[in-house]
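Supplementary Methods, section 5.1.

A reviewer requested that the exact input to the structure prediction be made available. We therefore reproduce it here, unchanged from the version used in the analyses.
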Amino acid sequence: MKKIFTLFLVLFAFTCFSQIPAGYYDSAEDLTNDELKTTLYNIIKNHTEYPYTDSETDVWDILKESDRDPDNSENVILLYTGWSVNAAQEYNSGSGWNREHVWAKSRGDFGTDEGPGTDAHHLRPCDISVNSARNNRWFNYCTERYYDNGGTIPTDSYTSYTDWFWQPRDEVKGDVARMIFYMATRYEGENGEPDLEVINYIPSDKDTKEPIHAKLDALLDWNEEDPVDDFERNRNEVVYSYQHNRNPFIDHPEYVNAIYVTSTTGVGNNVDLTKIKIYPNPAKNILHVDSKNDFSVEFYSIIGEKVLTSKQSNIDIQNLKAGIYFVVVKDEIGRTLTCEKLIKD
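The structure derived from this sequence is encoded token-by-token as follows.
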């Protein structure tokens, strides 16, 4: 009876997500670039920290709940393989599972210290030998499929025999990107914490302990290619219930481009943003987007789900439910030009 009730709670969590707390991101409205990043830092800093391993609640306990298999409440899902394994088998002398630091703990040399080393927003269950194979490799595109167990068990993750790179399976590429962006936003060098930065080059020293992680271009692509899904949303809620802070890039994946595209590629240098007009607001049937440049428009729900795309100047929004949306205008190669909150009547 207890197992049936537990399974019901798991399934319920995946079908009925908590809403973002009212006002949580109000201070971030209409911001971009470093101003948005700094504001998000101030929203999510000072989270409740848990020990890596302890007789009381620790990281193991959080991951057993946050990464629980929705089809089997006794199991957790492993990040890079998608395999479902017994959650109770914590390490188990090397035959169980362990905890992957998605932002490699050597990149900033923070180890398993409380704070970045135990932040569950970037810690995920992982097969032990696959975790070892990933090591502290930079995230980037690869062509060599990784085979586990001495090259006998295929996975859907990729590596490189010539470069220090790792490419997660397609189903979690976006998850990985949004975890990396979270870490670079949450840890800004204050109060003895590392100042983590995402970089768009590959360091010559693969063993560097500098607080950096690569590669930005790939992570930006993956954020677009693998949108936020129900598993990731539920995971954000579970971690929030413990740490009392959220991953903003799961709630608002459009924040990624609003920070990293405009601040790193100079978007807007050849575009007069004052001449991009989105109206009316509130809107009921048709939304008008005026720009002298080629553009596309993406609509995101309040929980970060992309619900509509268009390349039209007059966009039919009658089928959108009444509520709050975020309208993201992009140029012809997909770089964010502007993002505005829309109220749909």
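The chain has ten helices and 18 strands. These observations are discussed further in the main text.
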